[in-house]
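Before the break, one more example. Copy the sequence into your notebook; we will annotate it together after we see the structure.
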Amino acid sequence: MKLASIYEKIKQYNIADLNKVGLPFHNSYNFFDLKIKFKSNSPHLLQVLEQLFSYFSKKDTINTIEINFFENGQLNSHLILQSPFCTHFIYKTDNGIISIYKDSQQKEANLAYLGVSPKTKPPLTEINILDNQDDNEQLYSIAEFLITILIASMSKECFFFHAASLSYNGQGIILAGETMSGKSTLSLGLANKGFDFLSDEVVCFELDTHKLRPFPKSICLRENSIDFFKPILSEKQQIYQGSDGKQRWLINPRDLNMGANNQHCRAAHFFILKGFKEEPQVKNAKARDALQYTMSSSYVRIDEPAKTLFSLTPIFNDLKCYFLLPGSLEKTLDLIKEVIEQ
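Here is what the structure looks like once it is written out:
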């Protein structure tokens, strides 16, 4: 099927028609200054979101933003995410998962690649939409990712970017790196050594106080990481399928033999993960290296770079920044702790 024809159908589709579909299942959560209610025609999707976000307090309020999910939705889509700001039509294709979306102000449709191999990125003019087999597990991680983007774009209190964070003796620690660089494994390992877990992939900076806030979404561990942590985990772990189709172990902070620290703390150390070495190494980095990573890994598009840079620069003035080349897990954890305690 040609993408242009899907664009045209979505462009002309009346989004108001989605509201005619019954959404009997719902859960509400408080994400900082945002109160969000998820509604869906799929109880299983909401169960997965509950596993991911159960640590956040839940309370129904009048001022609630609704995000609706329509599984096996209109226009042959496998999942539709509708918010007051945009609507995503998500498709499983033989090229991976894609989303065709438009925001409330646009008449044109746009394409987002979600889990598409770099080799199949533009120019992609035709897609083969896969038959629905009632197996939408892989889409739920896409829903989680889009929810994070919506939270980041709607929050007026915080700046969100992709990294892990912990606290230790009142000091905030950030572990930054690309996907598969080991942030989740290192953050859980440090938590096992007495650090307070804040988040394994979403760092929240309070723009007014310059402090870190916890974002204790459940941790997704790869199969080769789970064996190391089995002694400290409960038996309540869930299997979760990532956007790449591979299984993960879903670890809820409530199920760990440790508690997430709900206190805000000032960031003190910023580690940028760079590759792997047989023996772990730490090298000094400059504040601009950390700031550059933070800007490039924002969960939302930065339309005013100068304004964002101005608001973030004070946070990095007192940060100690490092390049970290991880080695074996135990040695890397000990090295991080040694650097912080010096």
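Residues 137-154 form the longest helix (18 residues). Helices lie at 3-12, 43-53, 137-154, 183-192, 223-229, 287-296, 305-316, 329-341. Try to locate both features in your own notes.
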